[in-house]
Structures are given as structure tokens and as C-alpha cells.
Design a protein that fits this description.
Length: 223
């Protein structure tokens, strides 16, 4: 769990280069991960969708372009990131803290958060807040990094702690911006632990779908 002030400062400083950094650091895999998330969202057939911690709007724009009939609202507490999202075509945005959304109870069919929950101060509190704004029967999708197991674990851990921060620093111009990333991924609950967290926060039928051997995972739950 992260300090909100630190997270806001970091993402404000790298907003203009965030999209490029993500594509390079993941070797383009982040695009494939969002496409897999899109397939799940499309199956839900939501009328409206709330993309929390939307950042530069990657997932929100993926949904908006593929499912134009869905009303998409992107929220983030970092204005510089939202400004980039707007420049990229996400016009329906709201500057808001994910821990205290200024939105009515039971107002969205679906909610998503991609690579954002891990940066929040209290995972359980955030998940309960997301549940509050979902309609009964509404769905939540969380896409985030996780730690792979088996033969991938060692090489990935070395990349995460030793190589990725240096490349990210060069790409973003902020040498310390990604120093915290490895530790945040190591401590983020994954697999069965995250499914249990979803259940404890009131979500039914929690699922976990590992991607690329567990480097990232898509989690879902239903209100």
C-alpha cells in the first residue's frame, strides 16, 4: 500500500511519457493485456462503465473505441495524467480520489481499475468504495502486475528490481520514479489471496486469470 502524496508526485512528474514507458517496459504486452480485459468486459454488456485510476486513459480508451455504445467515465486523482487522457481522446473524465468517489451509490454497471489499485493507500477500502458505486449484479475488473511462479520467478524478479527502474528512469526523465515498483508488486496480494480479498469486500464469484505466466493478472468479481 502506497503513500498518496508520493504516488501523486511520481505520476505527475512522468505523465507526458507514461504511455511510451509502459509500452517499452512491457514489450507491448500491456496492449495485449488490455485487449484480454476488453473481451471480458464485452461479455458483461454494460451500459456504462467507470474506469478508476484511469491515468492516461489506456483501458478507458480501449473500451470506448471497441464498444462505442458504452458510456465510459474515467476518474483519477492526478490532473496531469487526466490531461494526457483528454488529449488522447477521453473526453468524459473526473478528477477524484478513488478512495472517496463523488459518485452516487449503485450508478454503474461495471467498474475497472488497471495498474492502479496497487498504488492505493488501502486495498480493501478502495474495493468497498468501488462496490458502492456498482449496481446490484454489476461487475468489477482489476488488471495489475503480479509475481510469476516457477522458472519465471527468478529472472523476472531480477528484471523488476535491477533493469526496469533504470530503463524507466531513462524513458521518463525521472530516475527514481519506478524505484518503488518492484516492492509494490512483491507485496500486492495475488492469485487466491486477491480472490479472498475480493470475497471479504463483498464480491461474489471472484476469479483470477494469470497472463504471461503470472506477470500480470486479471481479477473479476460481482456485486
Amino acid at each position: 500500500m502506497q503513500d498518496p502524496g508520493f504516488v501523486h508526485e511520481v505520476f505527475s512528474s512522468i505523465a507526458s511519457r507514461y504511455v511510451t514507458a509502459n509500452h517499452v517496459l512491457s514489450l507491448g504486452s500491456d496492449i495485449l493485456w488490455r485487449e484480454r480485459a476488453l473481451k471480458i468486459i464485452a461479455e458483461w454488456k454494460p451500459r456504462n462503465l467507470l474506469d478508476i485510476a484511469t491515468g492516461t486513459g489506456d483501458l478507458a480508451l480501449t473500451v470506448k473505441r471497441a464498444l462505442p455504445e458504452v458510456e465510459v467515465l474515467g476518474t483519477d486523482f492526478c490532473r496531469p495524467m487526466l490531461d494526457v487522457a483528454v488529449q488522447r481522446g477521453l473526453t468524459n473524465v473526473l478528477e477524484a480520489d478513488a478512495m472517496n468517489l463523488p459518485l452516487a451509490d449503485e450508478s454503474f454497471d461495471a467498474a475497472t481499475v488497471a495498474f492502479g489499485l496497487r498504488n492505493m493507500a488501502d486495498y480493501a477500502k478502495a474495493l468497498r468504495e468501488f462496490r458502492r458505486v456498482l449496481l446490484p449484479g454489476g461487475h468489477l475488473l482489476v488488471l495489475d502486475f503480479s509475481m510469476p511462479e516457477g522458472v519465471l520467478a527468478g529472472p523476472y524478479r531480477f528484471y523488476l528490481h535491477n533493469i526496469l527502474p533504470r530503463i524507466a528512469g531513462w524513458l521518463t526523465g525521472n530516475m527514481g520514479a519506478y524505484d518503488y515498483l518492484g516492492d509494490s508488486i512483491e507485496t500486492f496480494p495475488r492469485g487466491e489471496a486477491f480472490k479472498e480479498l475480493l470475497a471479504n469486500c463483498g464480491y461474489f464469484m471472484p476469479t483470477a486469470l494469470p497472463l504471461m505466466g503470472g506477470i500480470a493478472t486479471i481479477y473479476t468479481g460481482q456485486k
